[in-house]
Q: What sequence folds into this?
């Protein structure tokens, strides 16, 4: 598998925030989000090829029973199903962080963290038109998110940079055709560092208070900054 990094840290986002976890970041993505904070795993994929044995050895070297598969987009990684089989055979909890654009196809997963991409993710003119079109055609797949939510415990996590984003979020939730409890909708301010996050925090807090959505902090950014391996 083409792997960007494997590291041991604490979960910084979502329902399991604060839980010590081993993170396996695959390299490669089917999207090109304008505000991506892991371009080394998406826009410009970097990494090394590792066998499943290599990965399991690294995962089990840490005192953790939670594993987070992230990216990039882990669901396009070769052998992702085999890796989750191996992890689950060790009795470990698996979180998959995905944009929700690829069907699960029976992958082992205890919590799927679906992060649908809104219009605010559309890349600018510095990216080729072919990639811009591909991003727009791929980023919005509520019917695929529905399949994930029917099969696994889930959280829906949205990045917000403008008040107008809230209408999009509600449209997405409605298009799944499911009754989604507001507490399962996590709203996260857009930003790669504390200063950027603070710019959008007030918008997010106001929305959470009015809609009953859950505020999603980025604890790892507060603790470590925007650095790899955290």
A:
């Amino acid at each position: 598998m083409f792997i960007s990094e494997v590291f041991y840290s604490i979960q910084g986002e979502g329902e399991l925030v604060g839980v010590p976890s081993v993170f396996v970041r695959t390299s490669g993505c089917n999207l090109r989000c304008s505000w991506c904070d892991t371009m080394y795993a998406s826009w410009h994929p970097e990494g090394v090829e590792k066998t499943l044995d290599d990965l399991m050895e690294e995962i089990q070297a840490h005192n953790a029973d939670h594993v987070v598969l992230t990216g990039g987009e882990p669901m396009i990684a070769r052998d992702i199903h085999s890796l989750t089989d191996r992890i689950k055979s060790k009795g470990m909890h698996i979180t998959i962080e995905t944009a929700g654009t690829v069907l699960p196809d029976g992958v082992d997963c205890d919590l799927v963290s679906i992060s649908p991409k809104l219009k605010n993710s559309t890349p600018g003119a510095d990216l080729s038109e072919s990639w811009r079109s591909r991003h727009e055609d791929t980023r919005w797949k509520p019917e695929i998110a529905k399949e994930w939510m029917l099969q696994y415990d889930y959280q829906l996590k949205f990045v917000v940079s403008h008040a107008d984003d809230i209408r999009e979020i509600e449209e997405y939730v409605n298009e799944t055709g499911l009754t989604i409890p507001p507490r399962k909708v996590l709203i996260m301010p857009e930003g790669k560092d504390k200063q950027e996050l603070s710019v959008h925090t007030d918008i997010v807090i106001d929305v959470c208070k009015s809609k009953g959505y859950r505020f999603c902090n980025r604890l790892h950014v507060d603790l470590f900054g925007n650095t790899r391996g955290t």
